[in-house]
Design goal:
213 residues; alpha+beta; Rossmann fold; 6 helices; 10 strands; globular
């Protein structure tokens, strides 16, 4: 298997099938269970409807502080202070959902990383900053090629779980040293990610193979 990043292409028919089985905020208000489900909606509306402490793992990939259109929804570059408040607002919305033993990973580029790491420390215990290499780096005539991105790893408490490549699960001990690996069953969860609007086109999705081992 090649270690290069791949583009996963979703056809319109496949996308429509995924979208049809998604829940909405109205479904949650009506009493439908969010367990093992995908919720398509504005996280500022959805998060307050979910039970506190319901998530053992949160993976967030917020908009980088770049002017860009996300399937028709525009995000405009902001000043550092404004982007910091934006980050603080969405993190405050998801923070109550993390369980006492939960972990959160936040993806970002090098510029937004300076803000995200600082705000994470206000609400969680930051454990590590993972830096990974992009094969398709962003270059510029008057700067060095940007070929790296960050993933911040933080936890709610000192009692948390780390899953390593190879299947071993390490339970963090009270003293902070990893305990010997032991096998356990990890519940499968679908990513709570909205799929957006589907037009008559193929929709690419990027997946960093190196992160999956």
């Amino acid at each position: 298997m090649s270690l290069r990043n791949k583009t996963i292409t979703t056809t319109v028919a496949e996308g429509a099938a995924y979208l049809a089985r998604c829940l909405t905020a109205d479904d949650i208000r009506a009493g439908k269970s969010a367990l093992d489900a995908t919720i398509n909606g504005d996280m500022r509306t959805v998060c307050p409807l979910l039970a506190p402490g319901c998530a053992e793992l949160i993976i967030a990939d917020p908009p980088y502080n770049l002017t860009k259109s996300y399937d028709g929804t525009a995000f405009r570059r902001r000043g550092a202070a404004e982007y910091e408040e934006y980050t603080r607002a969405w993190l405050a919305a998801v923070a109550p959902l993390l369980s006492p033993r939960g972990s959160i990973y936040v993806c970002c580029d090098w510029q937004s990383s300076l803000v995200i790491g600082r705000v994470l420390e206000e609400m969680f215990t930051v454990r590590s900053r993972i830096t990974w290499q992009r094969e398709k780096g962003r270059g510029a005539k008057r700067n060095w090629k940007n070929g790296m991105e960050d993933i911040w790893f933080a936890t709610r408490s000192d009692d948390y779980t780390v899953c390593h490549k190879g299947g071993g699960v390490y339970l963090q001990s009270r003293r902070g040293a990893p305990a010997p690996p032991r096998r356990c069953t990890i519940p499968r969860r679908r990513a709570a990610q909205g799929l957006g609007r589907f037009a008559a086109r193929r929709i690419p999705r990027h997946l960093p193979i190196k992160l999956l081992g």
